[in-house]
Amino acid sequence: MSVSPAARVAELRELIAEHNRAYYVRDAPVIPDADYDAMVRELRSLEAAHPELAEVGSVSETVGAAPSTTFSPVVHAERMLSLDNVFDVEELRAWAGRVARGLERDEAEIDFAVEPKIDGLALAITYLDGDFLQAATRGDGTVGEDVSLNVATIGSVPARIGARGRVEVRGEVYLSLKDFEALNEAQRARREREFANPRNAAAGSLRQKDPAVSASRPLSFLAYQLLGDERSFLTYHETIDQLGEWGFTVAAERAVLRGTEAMLERSSWFEGHRHDLGYQIDGAVVKLDDLAQRRALGATSRAPRWAVARKFAPEERSTHLLSIEVSIGRTGRATPYAVLEPVLVAGSTVSLATLHNEDQVALKDVRPGDLVIVRKAGDVIPEVVARIPEEGVERAAPWVFPRECPDCAGELVRRAGESDTYCVNPRCPAQLMQQVIHFASRGALDIEVLGEQRVAQLLHEGLIGDVADLYTLEPEQLAPLEGFGEVSARALVGAIENSKSQPLSRLLVGLGIRHVGPVAARALAGTFQTYDALASAERERLEAVEGVGPVIAESLYVFVREPEVLERMRRLSEAGLALAEPVTRSAGTALAGRAVVVTGALTGYSREQAEAAVLGAGGTSPSAVSAKTYCVVVGEAPGASKLARARELGVPLVPGEEFENLLQSGTWRSTLT
Predict the structure, then answer these.
(1) Are 287 and 257 a contacting pair, CB within 8 Å?
(2) Which residues are CB-contacts of 249 (< 8 A; sequence separation ≥ 6)?
(3) 576 DSSP 8-state letter
(4) Residue 81 in contact with residue 133, Cβ under 8 Å?
(5) Average pLDDT in the 61-79 region?
(6) Is the pLDDT assigned to residue 567 strictly greater than 90?
(7) How confident is the model at residue 68 (pLDDT cuts 50, 70, 90)?
(8) Sorting pLDDT into bands at 50, 70 and 90, what band is 585?
(9) Could you read off the pLDDT of 226-242 as tens digits, one per residue?
(10) What is the DSSP string of 163-217?
(11) Phi–psi pair at 413, nearest 5 degrees
């Protein structure tokens, strides 16, 4: 039955108002931002198409929500407006055109400030003659909540600044990704429900009645607006520089660009680097840099005309969970996953999402039939974040983790002290298939044309039962199989033969040793040179290798002594695999024995190319900063956690432009503070 525009408008207004209260007052949103944005856009479209339905004070034009009664009210000296949103480059270009027409200026002559849109909680902090006076949330834009005692516990909020009279600093309270993960780790250790995302965690941590709770959470504050200072500033970037001088954290990635095209390119840069920053962003904010131009354009009832937020492709969407299944990985780990109604998330269709382990399914209390939030961030595997309560909908019974492997019917065992469950049958076909696929993958032995379907076929035909069996295959065995033929059979056997010359570091990756990734594999292979030397090394010797440590050392020490592994390595050696790391005679020695961490984008280098360049100069390129790190090369948009760790340990920070000097001489001319 069709719904009239009037009925739909009333329904949308009620839904949006309730979601505003959930987001701004209770810090517990129940739907993803993308679903909320879609509701607001639909309401505005209906109001535009049916002017008779428009009303003053519609939720489509309001800011935030009325403050709660938990804290004392604070009337803002100047309204805290929201920002209008655009959702792609063309909408942003259209906004820039409206700005240019409003200013009667050529777009190519306008200076735009572009900065990350941190997903946090808006805050206004007032200082009187330099002393911290008060802090308030946005509330409904006119009246906020007094959270002064809680904000005073945030380390990045100065207690005193060098300002005269009454000034206000506005910005976002947030949790860095590093601190958010640490907070959730603590939640997991206490077997308590994890926070869904950094924004909710930050907002909930700040809006605590007891300031001691806020003090216990690693909250940060990023400043982006200065109001009321007596100084005469002409541009926005001058005000941000002043905030930085006073001790506030400001966005290091901000930039001022002249002209629409440069501004569009910078906003797209943020979309491409949204996962390289130390905090979560959901878009880029574009503002006029000239303060006089801002005053000339003014604002609507809810948003300034001189600023806009470009929202990126949503990484969270809602959909229905159809069933919960279990997959078996190459180590035997049994991972529950959700089968979903297909939904477009972050630019791709998602129909499967991980649920991690038994405890996470129980904590999130998701069941088949539930409406759930699914998240996909960059290349990260999609995951189910939480369920969305639905009134009047009867739920299925709680899901129970199976006791038998779905592939081999073997016993599933949860090891003491671990959250994961494992199939303990070493001959489980699912494990074997994943082991062979991993062994042949591009990052390991790189055996071309040996994909998932080919591996499944070889296993089904009984031609392989271990990765070592790959090296016994003959073209005559393969040619008669469906989809092969003589040419493709010889191609596969040839690719397997070529893999015998792969270095030891790739073999270590291919063997699937727990905790041993590409970086550790290269460090181990470079140190020991041969598999025999590595396999005979004591724990202490393994642990001493840069980037290894006790966990990796223990895992490796146990792995190489397992009877099944001993037999596999004997067969691989007899098959003619090199089992050694070649010494590149042409490689430089400027960084010999030195660990160099690269963070951020370097001009002329991809992440992989920068890492390869360090290795080519004789060094190692671990992913984390430690006391053994020689230096950290800092490119554009570096990881905040790596910078903080380097400063904590006193590791030199080398500007990205010094990278070539570092590769050639092992030294640099200047450092960062």
Answers:
(1) no
(2) 156, 220, 221, 222, 223
(3) T
(4) no
(5) 74
(6) yes
(7) low
(8) very low
(9) 998 766 799 999 999 99
(10) --SEEEEEEEEE--HHHHHHHHHHHHHTT-PPPSSHHHHHHHHHS-SSHHHHHHS
(11) -125, 135
Cα torsion through 266, 268, 274, 275, rounded to 10: -110
CA-closest candidate to residue 486, choices 496, 477, 473, 495? 477
Burial label, 348 (beta-carbon count in 10 A; 0-12, 13-18, 19+): exposed
Lowest mean pLDDT: which of 15-24, 106-115, 139-148, 640-649? 15-24
DSSP SS3 for 333: strand
| DSSP collapsed to 3 states, 511-541 | CCCCCCCHHHHHHHHHHHCEHHHHHCCCHHH
Q: Which amino acid is at 41?
A: R
Distance CA 168, CA 228 (A): 6
Residues 65, 127: Cα–Cα separation, whole Å: 25
Catalytic residue among 117, 287, 311, 364: 117
User: Tokens 């095209």 appear where?
Assistant: 261
Q: Return the sign of the alpha-carbon dihedral for residues 437, 442, 448, 449.
A: positive
Q: What is the DSSP letter of 669?
A: S
Interatomic CA distance for residues 162 and 35, integer angstroms: 43
Q: Is 376 a catalytic residue?
A: no
Question: How open is the CA angle 57-63-67, to the nearest 5 degrees?
Answer: 100
Sign of the torsion formed by the C-alpha atoms of 132, 138, 142 and 144: negative
Number of helical H runs and strand E runs in the chain: 24, 21
DSSP H or E stretch at residue 658: none
Q: Is pLDDT larger for residue 164 or for residue 519?
A: 164
Angle formed by the axes of helices 89-103 and 260-272, to 10°?
A: 150
Mean pLDDT of 511-516: 90
Domains of the chain (ranges; CATH) run 5-53 (1.10.287.610), 73-311 (3.30.470.30), 316-421 (2.40.50.140), 429-501 (1.10.150.20), 504-575 (1.10.150.20), 595-665 (3.40.50.10190)
Kind plus residue range of the DSSP H or E element containing 647: helix 640-649
Cβ contact 311:282 at 8 Å = yes
